[in-house]
Amino acid sequence: MKKKITIGYIGLGRRGYGVLKGCISEMKDVHIKYLCDLHEKHLQRAADLLAEKGLPGATLSVDYQEILQDPEVDAVFIMTDWASHVPIAKDAMRAGKYTAIEVGCAFDLQECWDLVDIYEQTGTPLMMLENCCYGRREMLALNMVEQGLFGEIVHCDGAYSHYLPDVELFLDLDDPIRHYRIDEYKKRNCEQYPTHELGPIAKVLGINRGNRLVRLNSIASKSVGLKEYARDHLANYPEFNTDYNQADIVTTVITCEGGETITMKLDTTLPRAYYSRNFTVRGTKGMSCEEGKVVFLEGMTEPVQNNEEEFFAKYDHPLQKEYVEIGERGGHGGMDWLVCRAFIESVKNGTNTPIDVYDTVTWMSIAVLSEASVKQNGAPVEIPDFTRGKWQNREPVTEGKYCLDKVCIDDTAIITD
Amino acid sequence: MKKKITIGYIGLGRRGYGVLKGCISEMKDVHIKYLCDLHEKHLQRAADLLAEKGLPGATLSVDYQEILQDPEVDAVFIMTDWASHVPIAKDAMRAGKYTAIEVGCAFDLQECWDLVDIYEQTGTPLMMLENCCYGRREMLALNMVEQGLFGEIVHCDGAYSHYLPDVELFLDLDDPIRHYRIDEYKKRNCEQYPTHELGPIAKVLGINRGNRLVRLNSIASKSVGLKEYARDHLANYPEFNTDYNQADIVTTVITCEGGETITMKLDTTLPRAYYSRNFTVRGTKGMSCEEGKVVFLEGMTEPVQNNEEEFFAKYDHPLQKEYVEIGERGGHGGMDWLVCRAFIESVKNGTNTPIDVYDTVTWMSIAVLSEASVKQNGAPVEIPDFTRGKWQNREPVTEGKYCLDKVCIDDTAIITD
Asked: Residue A287: its chain B contacts at CB < 8 A?
């Protein structure tokens, strides 16, 4: 086992910089040897951060290839725009570097298959940093499902309900290096951001480990929210009169091999009262639901709401218990910290990652498949079996496999290479 | 305008008796001339009720045809099991009696077309007593939509999330005259109870009045909840080892002519924390949502929850204001009272009903269409235009049309025929 790992960190925009600042640069067992971005101002901001924290200076790079050629580098973090995750990941995996990619979606199925093929040829692990798999609510449900408390699981709901015009889509309009999601919304019409919902649900349902996603149906509403927002707020920008292809609401229903259904909703362009992932698990003996902040077990008396805290006290996932003890670190209530640790621990231990290449491509592929279904008025579209049959015998997710080793959260030690 | 109407009341089971007791028998402008049911004990219970209330005795009948032949009868209430609503309604409409049917669903499209044809031939109004159209939350949203406060409406959600094994499906197993829903759950697999959700949403979206339902996709989960419940609780009954065809969760997405989408969920056989219709309206300027009990308008600061009461105070539907003033009557928070009044007022005024034959069959037909879609893995199924093109020019729902006349709620007067 390695005590300290050496990484290249690629992509220093808003998200990349945020995770670097809140998580990676705080971890004493990580040596950040390279910082890489196409934009000088991003590189400088990140270099300043390391200096402020008293960390060794990193090599600043505009070409990730030089990182991949360095035999000292154990792993790379790819925090770039969605479209470049896969091309860089393919090169990184071929170079034998443990590869982490930020959340995103696929643009075609070939890139998904490429990742699988490269993994199977090289054995290099790939992990999507799907932080929502490490949400406290999601892990509580997983823990309770694994203990059988909800009975047989039948249905799950999820959503990405997050109103984005002010906080991302039209933010920094005067900055040439701004967020690219709006460009994708001009082009595509699909479930463009599936993994925050689907990742944790896939864990609960044992997807690619005894179960698999079989098909989906996706249905899109009209697209009027962004155009109306631009008309109201962006009179002096070209966005004022731009057309968007992306529907305001895309509803997707996935059917699983075990007969379970999953509903998903992409919901980012109509004003709404609060952020929600609507994480919901329904079984024959009980349920967990983000709306209502409720856990319910057969035998309890209806109606019940807002009782989640009682269940955190009783059934918190072991990893979350440890996390609560060390106090909040990183953003998003600890999810960022924990997902980064899961990857880093895998690198240190030389094991596969708890979210692996099959999980990553299965989740990412939903965007492409939903795009096809939307075009056919929600006709069923088969979801490829990226495991090529291995899902039947892959080990189920168990607590030990999914959890981090307990020592992984200790970042106070002084660790030498 | 008639001051008092004469009715025949057909179907005196749990629901029929409940509405008779809480609503119809309390209304001074209604003369209940006939009580009709196939079962002696139901007839006797209803007759006892009228006697207890000091009302004139009604003729007790086991054959609804005798009611239809009585020229004194203005209207009939059909409160029987789902399967007999349409056959009785067809006869009643042909006999020229204003016809109210309880909530239910269609078994084939032909019966829907038959109702349309008979209406168009005879001019006899038909109304489904969809009480949820008169829910306070639903009417608040309708009022705000009509005032343009939510902007352009893009998407609605609804659900029938009500855990039924204890309260209905397996209730009174020893009684030979028990609820028939369980039999439908053995046979069919579809959105069997669409109208509680779809009725109010159709009002909001102007369905059959400038807009129409174009197609749907329905996807069904596995069916395990009832079987497991029976295994756990019903060892001494034949239900112990019965198979159910009905999925635990059926998700349906409807697409409208205007590009709006509607999601629906039938959810009655898995334990859950609370009853919900998940009534949700999403527009370009705001939203209303039962989960969260929230109304949100652009410009408010996220997050907001539990602020519905403020909006009731400010934008309560005029009809609800009157209802609140007279104090709660009937069941389900006034919805039963108001929907019965809407029908009775139409009879008194000789007008069409606010939920008319086109609305009724459009909403009922979802069961049949969803059944077809479920069998094809959620493939899109076209929804017939039961108005045969008239939806384009039918008047939009306006407050006056939808509302009751304000005097209709006064039931304190002594009214002679």
From this structure: 270-273
